[in-house]
Amino acid sequence: MSVNENLSVHGLIVQLPLDSINRIDTELITNAVSPDKDVDGLSCINAGKLSRGDLNDCFIPCTPNGCMELIRQTGVSVAGKHGVVIGRSKIVGAPMHDLLLWNHATVTTCHSKTPDLPEQVGRADILVVGAGRAEMVRGEWVKEGAVVIDCGINHVPDETKASGKRVVGDVHYASANQRAGFITPVPGGVGPMTVAMLMENTVQSAQRFLLRSQSHR
């Protein structure tokens, strides 16, 4: 790819999902991006480094990175806490598990085959939800005082809206808000942080390229 070789380009992202009437191998496309410019952190090389705990030598996916920043802003230490992640996607769930783990939380990952989801959620000091199911996590499941990060974006019918629908997360906000110590709204919570982390990764990439070019002079 010519963009990989272009020294004036410091960040490259692939907008997913890839829309086409023909099947496209997403892994093939995302792995074609140079790991040094993969500011979305989706290539297998960056994902592998993250899974091994090499956090200072990879680009971290933007949504999980934004979630970690939101947790930091609460003042709640991740170390020693029980983190529960719902969802195991390559973009959110899997890297979120790795980030919590390497920041010294004890982590449980839940998914569609988890039989006792309310019980698992009830153990979470830090709960991150990225399952893609509207308001699936009920407030009564949530541990009193827990940090709840909702990565879900779902559309549900709402006749009061001009569009006939409204956006909700994967957590039932009204009930969870009664028990959580901190909780993100949808929309307006994780989304803006994802964009901010993408910009941060791009700036870091530019700085690395500039330092390399100076050292080669």
Automatic annotation (TrEMBL):
It comes from Ameca splendens. Residues 3-40 form the Tetrahydrofolate dehydrogenase/cyclohydrolase catalytic domain. Its EC number is 3.5.4.9. Keywords: Hydrolase, Multifunctional enzyme, One-carbon metabolism, Oxidoreductase. InterPro entries: Aminoacid_DH-like_N_sf (IPR046346), NAD(P)-bd_dom_sf (IPR036291), THF_DH/CycHdrlase (IPR000672), THF_DH/CycHdrlase_cat_dom (IPR020630), THF_DH/CycHdrlase_CS (IPR020867), THF_DH/CycHdrlase_NAD-bd_dom (IPR020631). It holds the Pfam family THF_DHG_CYH. Transmembrane segments: none annotated. The keyword Oxidoreductase applies. Residues 61-208 form the Tetrahydrofolate dehydrogenase/cyclohydrolase NAD(P)-binding domain. This is methenyltetrahydrofolate cyclohydrolase. The lineage of its organism: Eukaryota, Metazoa, Chordata, Craniata, Vertebrata. It catalyses: (6R)-5,10-methenyltetrahydrofolate + H2O = (6R)-10-formyltetrahydrofolate + H(+).
